[in-house]
Write a structure and sequence with these properties.
334 residues; 15 helices; 47% helix
Length: 334
């Protein structure tokens, strides 16, 4: 990928950029993509699924129950197949960037960061140590991360985790969600430790190209979902990542889930039923106090899953707050 990085860094700075939105499930990423109005953005090659190149890697995890076993217990065949799947996912993404580059376009795609974790980093977290993850926890080479500039989209864990649990129960059923494998999978997909580790890793790279298209805004960018209610900030973000801020939209016609699969329809249910930004879905962190919701979670999810929700919220809050302090704001740096 070195030749791609070299070709981009030699281009004029106002050339369309390549961006990756790194998210967790239930962080309002579908809303942000709708607001950015990607189909109508000039000089942008829009991916038909807006990304999710690493979905096959996630599917392999579930099919082979890798969440539930330390990496040392994987078979040689599982190691080879998982590595091959990850490499194929990465190659597909690289090819998308290359093809856009050939026609002078930029790209904007999104991925759940837990889809692209290094298997060893994931296994260490789940089975060995809960200590802070150091270095790049993803399988994306540093050279490519200097081409596809990351934005971390975050949302308060008190909003993410209960929503994640509801969606999981709707899609998988109570029995499956209550399994040890599901508990481990949710630990990965409800943690901001991966964002923090990658943020620190990139900002410590001497050669990392942190400059954006907006003076005072540096990559990697952190966006908090509660700030998406502010049109001026969303426009500032669009301009910073090389998109046309005048193409950004805040109202649209409601959609239909008829052509979508069950999982995609469930994950987009709020967006499909809306005609614009639903303000009460983006309530900020200051309105949330976990001690007020413990009984509600037990009543809604039962004692075991209710306790899991509370535990996951508490475990994610410190990393969320660390990122929140570094989020893009309308005025000042960031």
């Amino acid at each position: 990928m070195a030749h791609i990085a070299q070709s981009i860094t030699s281009l004029p700075f106002n050339h369309p950029a390549h961006n990756i939105l790194l998210t967790l499930p239930r962080t309002a990423s579908h809303l942000l993509v709708r607001m950015l109005n990607l189909p109508n953005q000039p000089s942008l090659s829009r991916h038909p699924r807006d990304g999710y190149f690493f979905m096959p890697s996630l599917q392999y995890r579930y099919q082979h129950d890798t969440y539930n076993r330390p990496i040392a217990q994987w078979t040689d065949e599982e190691h080879e197949e998982m590595n091959a799947t990850i490499q194929n996912d990465l190659t597909t993404w690289e090819k998308w960037v290359q093809d856009a580059q050939l026609v002078g376009d930029g790209t904007f795609v999104k991925e759940h960061i837990n889809f692209m974790l290094r298997p060893d980093a994931e296994s260490d977290f789940l089975h060995t140590s809960d200590q802070e993850t150091e270095g790049n926890p993803t399988c994306i080479p540093d050279t490519f991360l200097q081409v596809v500039r990351p934005t971390f989209l975050i949302r308060h864990p008190g909003l993410v985790v209960p929503s994640l649990m509801r969606a999981a129960i709707d899609l998988e059923g109570m029995e499956a969600v209550s399994s040890p494998a599901s508990e481990k999978a949710m630990r990965c997909e409800a943690s901001y430790r991966w964002h923090v580790a990658l943020y620190k890793h990139l900002t410590n790279l001497v050669t990392y190209p942190c400059k954006s298209h907006h003076a005072g805004t540096l990559y990697p960018i952190v966006l908090d979902a509660s700030d998406l209610i502010n049109p001026a900030l969303v426009k500032k973000y669009a301009a910073a990542i090389g998109l046309d801020q005048n193409t950004v939209q805040f109202n649209w016609e409601s959609g239909s889930a008829n052509s979508l699969g069950g999982m995609e329809a469930r994950m987009k249910d709020t967006l499909l039923g809306s005609e614009g930004v639903v303000m009460d879905k983006l309530v900020g962190r200051k309105q949330f106090h976990i001690e007020e919701f413990g009984e509600q979670y037990t009543e809604e999810f039962g004692s075991v899953l209710g306790a899991r929700v509370i535990r996951l919220i508490k475990n994610a809050t410190d990393d969320y707050q660390w990122l929140y302090e570094r989020r893009m704001q309308l005025y000042g740096a960031g």
